[in-house]
Write a structure and sequence with these properties.
With 157 residues, this protein is an alpha+beta fold. It is built from six helices and four strands. The protein folds into two domains: 45 residues, Orthogonal Bundle (Arc Repressor Mutant, subunit A); 80 residues, Lrp/AsnC effector binding domain/regulation of amino acid metabolism (RAM) domain (Alpha-Beta Plaits), CATH 3.30.70. Helix 2 crosses helix 3.
């Protein structure tokens, strides 16, 4: 589903503004029936539109106030093995394979600098990892958002 009609867009915009809204609240807000909203939500979910709701949990609330990004340089034939090993490190909250100078960008959370040092060492010990470059996140300048895309996207015909 790459294009949305006006109802889908209104529903997604309402969810972007109020992510915890109930189906009934969304129906009232949009002037739609509960069944229509529920059917549209099911269609959107089935199409893979919604990401994991875990992303709304603040790691700092769980005792992990520091966040860092680790650029990982990998021997290409080992990329899948490296990804499996990264997945086993609890502090790795996200990883992306990239094109360009960096092979994998890993987002980690930690309690303090000593723990970050340990996590980086653990990543360096993975067979296939050549080197890492670690950057401490100083603050989130633009939080994850999609509302501007919804507002800018052309309507389905």
């Amino acid at each position: 589903m790459s294009r949305f009609d006006a109802v889908d867009r209104a529903l997604l915009a309402a969810l972007a503004e109020h992510p915890r809204a109930t189906v009934v609240a969304l129906a009232d807000r949009l002037g739609l029936s509960r069944n229509t909203v529920q059917a549209r939500m099911a269609k959107l979910e089935g199409a893979g539109v919604f990401l994991s709701f875990e992303r709304a949990i603040d790691p700092a609330a769980l005792g992990y106030p520091l966040e860092a990004f680790i650029a990982v340089h990998v021997r290409q034939k080992r990329l899948n093995d490296v990804a499996v090993k990264l997945r086993a490190i609890p502090e790795v909250v996200q990883a992306h394979g990239l094109s360009g100078a960096v092979d994998v960008l890993v987002r980690v959370v930690c309690r303090d600098a000593h723990e970050l040092f340990r996590i980086d060492a653990e990543i360096l010990q993975i067979d296939g990892v050549e080197r890492t470059e670690t950057s401490l996140a100083m603050g989130e300048l633009i939080p994850y958002r999609l509302r501007p895309l919804l507002e800018a996207a052309p309507a389905a015909e």
